[in-house]
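The authors assume throughout that readers already know how a fold can be written as discrete tokens. In essence, backbone conformation is discretised, so a fold becomes a row of integers matching the chain in length. A single example would do more here than another paragraph of explanation. For illustration, here is how one protein appears when written out as sequence plus structure tokens:

…
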Amino acid sequence: MAFVTTFSRCHSPVGSWLLVSDGQALTGVYPESHRAVPATDDWRRDDAWFAGVRDQLIAYFAGRLTKFSVPLAAEGTKFQKRVWAALSEIPLGATATYGNIASHLGAPTSSRAVGAANGKNPISLIVPCHRVVGADGSLTGYAGGVELKQWLLEHEATTARRSCGGVTPIGLAAVTRHATQLVLG
């Protein structure tokens, strides 16, 4: 059975997000500032299918959701999918470096390949590629723009503190331009 690509949009405090599905799972989440937002000309709009996804995104932006539970089906290579799975292990309020992820994957010299895979993540925000920073803690590239990345990290640090009664637990970073980083185990 051939799937029809469907889409919807979700508005947030930082602009509109394009949501994409194959009818079974979420296949894309793109901020309007993304450098490669796909064209929707040949797709079918289906706001009803995305209602649950939108509800979760609204709760995330309101600081009430710390983990998404949405069926995902990102298209990518085996290595890209391993990187994206590692991204999903970075807790809300924390960051990791490209080198941390490469080491976690058992390929400590592949930080550039990790960076390339991170940049190809089609399900941004839900698969949190914005939580990856440079080795020195700097906010390096993000397809939605560094300003959006900074906003998301600050929002998540605030949400993480709030969800822990105002205390940042060990391992969660207070996000600044030089974030404390999490080493994936």
Remarks:
- The chain has two domains: 6-61, 78-163.
